[in-house]
Amino acid sequence: MSGYRYWSDRIAALDPVRDHEEIYRISAGHEFPWDYTRALEFALFRTYCVPSISALLDATREFRDRPQRRYDDTALLMAEIAAHGYDSPRGKEALRVINRMHGRYAISNDDMLYVLSTFIYDPIDWLARYGWRPLAEAEKMAAFHYYREVGHRMGIREIPSLFEEFREFKASYETSKFIYSDTNRRVGEYTVGLFAAWFPRPLRPLARLGVRSMLDPLMLTAFGFRAAPRWVTAAGAGTLRLRGRLLGLGRRAGAIRPRKISRLAQEAKNRTYPGYPTGYRPGDLGAPEPPGDLDARWLRPRAGA
């Protein structure tokens, strides 16, 4: 194995069912770390179009008061599971934190199932549009099997056993559940503000416009956002496609070598936990206890209560 096909050749030698963790780790950590990060950011953003999801997030006030920590906790915990394996000590610790966080609240199985589906299909669709190459069939199937296993360990029930069946569930859920609500808009505005805050202040209005340009009509309606001007949408999509083409040319020409060190859970520029993972463990992450004045309808009844 050599040249730009180094990891593609490795993936081709693996089985997407048996070796799904390794294939997913290669895709997300070696081949497409930037794209996976961006795609998963928008995947989570997409889930806030469901009023039952946004209403709970709005009620906890986490997105209003600590949006960066909320983002970092989610991103790092999911990266820990991918980097080390869902049955590794660090992976199990990350899953315990996630399950403890979710276990406090009354979240429907269907909402959990929908969020899980976005982690599979949004990166696949993103890379088909903007990647330096589309995902191979083995990578798509590996992502499907990987997240099914993660979902089982999160206690999510009735996860479809077929790739296309789960994709159809996702599409149907969006068609029926993406409905405007004030909580959608508030959580959406907090999230757009978070993304914009990553840029220097003079560029933040443009960043907000850029985020809106990435939203499809269903999302715009559910958030109550105005569509960005067509030229902004075209320029943003064109820039991302150009980036993908240039990376592909650089790979094929040998100017960009295959990444040998995974980027998963190795983000030194993390804003909440500087230098993570040095000095931290997954158990250090996670949202605080629910606010004391949170309406009881949002809380899962305690066992025996």
TrEMBL record:
Region (Disordered) residue spans: 272-305
Q: Which GO molecular function terms does the record list?
A: oxidoreductase activity
What region holds the ER-bound oxygenase mpaB/mpaB'/Rubber oxygenase catalytic domain?
A: 58-233
Domain of life of the source:
Bacteria
Q: Which InterPro entries match?
A: MPAB, MPAB/Lcp_cat_dom
**Protein name per Swiss-Prot or TrEMBL:** Peptidase
